[in-house]
């Protein structure tokens, strides 16, 4: 058990650094690595991807809290927008966990890999949508937030890869878009974690120390380290060539997603 805990802690170190450097929750890194680690542990093949998704969502919560506090301290969170988006992301994220639980590992892994390829392409090109409109009203924001939450639950991310482009497209300045996205990421992570716990409740064949599809030894080990290293990553973001690092990380995401597909399919 000790070697696996050390592996989860190492993943937490890298996840925190990545979250701080690039302003993302780290699910794109955690899900494929957790899938590989769980497979190496001999956990049931039928539950590998579900456990990776649920565990990743739960591990994102502390990182999201730390990120939210930092951005709030810089007055970079549009709280009225967060309040209007929160109901949508809560419903969309929670509902999508039921879809994820219904799907078998193969289509889940394929969807995750395709989405990560899209994220990687965006990171390599470093494109931002040109501001072309204002934020929609409450019904429009709730609808968009529901979609963001749904996709986030299926790939276990905090939603930043979708929320930030949407907000910048709506003429929100980039630093504020990132801060607001960090605040929106907390209800996504909480709703996703609860959803995967509920949907995995009573499922036969799950390993010890799980609550539904959340494997708690991994959550605690990852979160304990990512909470510490995320601020380090944020400081390094001001000293390192983040654009080139982001492109290298994008290639790593693609490689991990392909390896995940090989493991599951």
Characterize the structure shown.
The protein has 265 residues and is mainly α. The chain has one domain. The protein contains ten helices and two strands. Strands 1-2 form a two-stranded antiparallel ribbon. Strand 1 and strand 2 (214-215) form a beta hairpin. Helix 1 packs antiparallel against helix 2 and helix 4 (79-102) packs across helix 6 (138-155). The protein is globular and about 50 Å long. The protein starts with a helix and ends with a helix.
Whole-number average pLDDT?
A: 87
Numbering strands along the chain, what is their spatial order in the largest sheet?
A: 1-2
- Terminal CA distance reads 27 Å
Strand content: under 5%
InterPro entries: TM_pro_TauE-like (IPR002781)
Main location: membrane
Transmembrane segments: 6-39, 51-71, 77-101, 108-125, 145-167, 174-198, 213-232, 244-264
Keywords: Cell membrane, Membrane, Transmembrane, Transmembrane helix
């Amino acid at each position: 058990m000790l070697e696996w805990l050390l592996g989860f802690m190492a993943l937490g170190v890298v996840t925190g650094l990545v979250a701080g450097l690039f302003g993302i929750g780290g699910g794109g890194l955690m899900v494929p690595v957790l899938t590989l680690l769980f497979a190496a542990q001999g956990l049931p093949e039928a539950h590998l991807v579900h456990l990776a998704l649920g565990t990743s969502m739960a591990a994102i919560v502390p990182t999201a809290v730390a990120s939210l506090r930092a951005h709030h301290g810089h007055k970079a969170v549009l709280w009225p927008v967060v309040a209007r988006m929160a109901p949508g992301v809560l419903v969309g994220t929670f509902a999508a966990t039921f879809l994820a639980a219904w799907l078998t590992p193969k289509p889940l892994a394929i969807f995750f890999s395709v989405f990560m390829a899209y994220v990687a392409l965006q990171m390599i090109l470093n494109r931002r949508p040109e501001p072309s409109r204002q934020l929609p009203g409450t019904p429009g924001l709730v609808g968009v937030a529901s979609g963001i939450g749904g996709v986030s639950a299926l790939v276990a991310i905090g939603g930043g890869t979708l929320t930030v482009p949407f907000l910048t497209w709506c003429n929100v300045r980039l630093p504020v878009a990132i801060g607001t996205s960090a605040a929106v990421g907390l209800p996504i992570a909480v709703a996703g974690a609860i959803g995967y716990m509920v949907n995995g409740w009573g499922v036969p064949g799950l390993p010890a120390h799980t609550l539904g599809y959340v494997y708690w030894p991994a959550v605690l080990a990852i979160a304990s380290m990512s909470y510490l290293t995320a601020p380090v990553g944020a400081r390094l973001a001001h000293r390192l060539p983040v654009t080139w690092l982001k492109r290298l990380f994008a290639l790593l995401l693609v490689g991990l997603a392909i390896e995940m597909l090989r493991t599951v399919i």
